[in-house]
Amino acid sequence: MAKIMMRDLSPELSEEELKDLDALDGKEIVYDEDCPEMTSTQLAQFHRFDQIPISVSDSDMKKVRALSNKPRLLLKLDEGIDDLENGRVQSVEEAWKDIDQI
What's the burial of 49, exposed, middle or buried (CB within 10 Å: 0-12/13-18/19+)? Predict the structure, then answer.
């Protein structure tokens, strides 16, 4: 079993993303009703993203290495997580309804 740390993956930000981040440098954080300031208890529940290990089986690691030297598999995983977080994933019940209609 291999362990990959997120900090080991190279961040591939575009020029536009880098400019956007630079534009935010030094700006004040504005809290509101939709995004209130977090309590110290809430903040304590967070972990640095670059320090979270991901366990990958040896066979899956071989597949990742075989794809290329870029972490395409991990990028697809990131896209899947983004879809899940933004409600772009069907529930199992919805999927079965679609299957039953075929």
Answer: exposed
